[in-house]
Amino acid sequence: MSKAVFLTGTGTDIGKTYISGLIVKKLAEAGKNPAYYKAAMSGNERREDGSLIPGDALFVQKTSGISQSLDEMCPYVYENAWSPHLASRVEGNPVDLKVVRKGFLETADKYDYITMEGSGGILCPLCFDERRIQLEDVIREFELSSILVADAGLGTINSVVLTAEYMKAHSLPIKGIIFNHYHPGNIMEDDNIFMCEHMTGLPVIAKVQDDATEIETDADVLAALYDEVKIK
Fold first, then answer.
1. 176 near 202, Cβ under 8 Å?
2. 38 is annotated as an active-site residue
3. To bridge 111 with a disulfide, which of 35, 44, 65, 183 should be the other Cys (CB 3.0-4.6 Å)?
4. Per-residue pLDDT of the chain (232 residues; tens, 9 = 90+)
5. CA dihedral 55, 56, 59, 62 (to 10 degrees)
6. 3-228, superfamily in CATH?
7. What is the pTM of this model?
């Protein structure tokens, strides 16, 4: 049975894709047959033929070395670097949860560990016109637990605690926190991490430095964070 976990962040450009790539790479190196999936990607460039390149998926594919095709990784790809609800309003092709579900279950049929990345922060709207779909609706659709990705720097205490409290209040389970842009020995960052752990009660899964090519957490420890995919 395939297992999955959801990666959300305290905001956009926090490093979710970077962390996803490192996690998938670690699982692949351990022979755990991993995959990557994302409901909607914004801010993508076009190929010469006019088709859009799913940039986040391409990054994870190259970083991890997995053979999963880009077409399997994301059903909705937009050019404008906006929230998916706005990008689709301008470009067309709004997110439909049935399509997201179909792609996710097809991925679950082929791979053992699915790392599903969110768009932006937890409150990101995926569709607001034809349908009303929030990022948390995707998490609930597959009954996933989340890993929270945060910056180790200034301001993270507020963003981590607010995100964690919102998710707890809305019954969205969190397995722990990964801190990105960490500088060993930085007194402020170390205190930020301590305070976040203390104020949320969530464990720190990893502290990732800039330009890291590996996530130091053991592959079996990471794999234990994934829950069995529930087929409704």
1. yes
2. yes
3. 35
4. 799 999 999 998 899 999 999 999 999 999 999 999 999 999 999 998 989 999 999 999 999 999 999 999 999 999 999 999 999 999 999 999 999 999 999 999 999 999 999 999 999 999 998 899 999 999 999 999 999 999 999 999 999 999 999 999 999 999 999 999 999 999 999 999 999 999 999 999 999 999 999 999 999 999 999 999 987 6
5. -90
6. P-loop containing nucleotide triphosphate hydrolases (3.40.50.300)
7. 0.96
